[in-house]
Prior knowledge:
Blueprint: E1 3-11, E2 20-26, E3 34-42, E4 46-55, E5 63-73, E6 87-89, H1 94-101
Antiparallel strand pairs: 1-2, 1-5, 2-3, 3-4, 4-6
Amino acid sequence: MSTRTLYLVSFRNNSNQRAHFSIFVPSAQQPEKGTLIHVVGAPMAGYRLEFKRNYIPGNSQQLKDYVPIGSVFAGNIVDSSPTAAATIDTTARGNLELVAEQVRPPPISENFRAPVNGVSISFSPS
Length: 126
């Protein structure tokens, strides 16, 4: 049975920002595009798992690192049609995405102004 390589992708606008991490699953037919699996949201609103389909990481201005992290059996992946438009949804397709759903995204923070890793975040008007 064939395997597919998964990639850890990190994004950030600038070096002073924390990175946003995602898993990228390249398409079998067009490996430059595929599905980006990540969590989006904010501490005061909570987070949700999201799937960006027919996504091309190389088009992002924020892409910083693209690192292979392992392989999975191809039968665990459901690709979108390579001719379909890029979409974003929250519905898992295939075993790999079903496993991703088992990791619950963070809920709404009880105190989103509390220090994170010992660092307080202050908001100042511009």
